[in-house]
Structure formats: structure tokens, C-alpha cells
């Protein structure tokens, strides 16, 4: 598996990966209304806009055949997104993305106090990465998360 900087050429593949992972049928933390809100955020022009924005830092993980199987995105001191294709979960993809991110972001102090809004399924993983819950689970706009900080 290879981790690399995401480009605008990856827009559709990133979008498909995330929407598949965040669908209410497979993710109990997202209601139907929450999924509609999330879909607006994941419109191709919105994804591309974030990929071009120098305030965002986005990496993708590719399988041996070049398919994007995971992605991680940061905006300032917040990890905005970490998604892994369902069929590649629990195979070290998220850990690999996190390790590469720590190497890339750790030198400029961005990791200190890093914030993430963790889905229920991801809490244990984030704890393994060193994050701690800073509050109770919330469900604004139909998307359930627990705030966590590094």
C-alpha cells in the first residue's frame, strides 16, 4: 500500500469512498437527514475546492492496483476526515495514514491539541492514536460524533 498526496484527479474516487463508508445503511451514526447534509459537503466541486485549498492537507492510501482505499484530511488543527473502504478496514490502512500524517504534520506543531469528531466505530482507533474524549456524543444535523483531542 502506498500513501501519497491527494490531487484533483482523485476527487470522484475520494467522494465515492467516503459516501460508501458514511451511508446510513452501513453507518449507524448517520441518519438519512444527516446523509443528505453530508452529501452536500461531498459534492465534487466541494471536494475539489478542499483539495486545492492550501489550508487543507489530504493524503490517500492506494492498494497495490492503484485503487484509493483510504483517505485522511486535516484543516488547521482538526482532523476533518479519516475514511477507509469497508473491505479494507482493520487491515492497517487508517494506522498507515495516521503515521504518515504524524510525520508530515508533527514538525510544525499542528498535532498538539489536534481535534477530531469521532464516529462511534472509530473511538477505539482514535484512542489507540492517543486521542481522548473531551465531551459526550452529540448528533447535530443527524451526524453522531464524540469530540476527541490529542
Give a short summary of the structure.
With 150 residues, the chain is α+β, with helices and mostly antiparallel strands.
List keywords for this structure.
24% strand, seven-stranded mixed beta sheet, Aminopeptidase, 150 residues, 5 helices
Describe the protein's topology:
Blueprint: E1 2-5, H1 11-21, H2 32-41, H3 44-52, E2 56-62, E3 68-75, E4 78-84, H4 93-105, E5 115-118, H5 123-129, E6 132-133, E7 146-149
Helical run tally: 5
CATH architectural group: 3-Layer(aba) Sandwich
Whole-Å distance between the termini?
26 Å
CATH superfamily grouping: Gcn5-related N-acetyltransferase (GNAT)
Instruction: Report on the biggest sheet.
Output: 7 strands, mixed
Going across the major beta sheet, what is the strand order? 1-2-3-4-5-7-6
| Strand content bin | 15-25%
Radius of gyration: 14 Å
The number of distinct β-strands equals 7
Mean pLDDT: 89
Q: Which ranges are low-confidence, i.e. pLDDT below 50, for 5 or more consecutive residues?
A: none
Query: How is the CATH topology named?
Result: Aminopeptidase
Which term fits the overall shape?
A: globular
CATH class equals Alpha Beta
Count of the domains: 1
Which structural class best describes the helix and strand composition? alpha+beta
H/E topology pattern: EHHHEEEHEHEE
Q: What is the helical fraction, as a range of percent? A: 25-40%
Explain the overall architecture.
- The chain has a single domain (2-109), classed as Aminopeptidase.
- It has 5 helices and 7 strands; from the N terminus they run E-H-H-H-E-E-E-H-E-H-E-E.
- The chain has helices at 11-21, 32-41, 44-52, 93-105, 123-129, and strands spanning 2-5, 56-62, 68-75, 78-84, 115-118, 132-133, 146-149.
- It has a 7-stranded mixed beta sheet with strand order 1-2-3-4-5-7-6, sandwiched between helices.
- Helix 1 packs across helix 3.
- The two termini are 26 Å apart.
